[in-house]
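General statements about sequence and structure are easier to judge against a single worked case. No coordinates are needed to read the tokens, only the vocabulary itself. The sequence in question and its structure tokens are set out directly beneath this paragraph.
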Amino acid sequence: MDVSALRAPSPGYDTRRRRWRHLDTCQYKTVLEAEVPWSESGSGFAALFEALIIDWLREASIQAVARQLRVSWNAIDRVMQGAVKRRLVRRQGQAPRVLSVDETAFARRHEYVTVVTGSRTWRCSARG
């Protein structure tokens, strides 16, 4: 029996043609189009392009990054919000091993605030 007669196209339930904005090549806007099942839903950008956006946001405003990369302000903000959410999820399980405690007065009164931070990161996880 000929096995090729039994083969049928398998469309796959989670694959579809998608488009992503990628890093510009030779000063031209570059868009990739491919069928991939593992792409992040609603992203619209390649991972390298998102990484570039995040790096630039460390040095410039959303408006400046949007202008330089020729992307809308809302798209840059969406990438930033996604990066912050991913980082907060990763950070939740990290408890500092060594704490630093400081107490200081403020507003020229006898009102004090105690600040507890991780001594290596200087990150304060709560305010109150």
Observations:
- The beta strands are 17-25, 28-35, 99-106, 111-118.
- The chain has two domains: 17-91, 95-128.
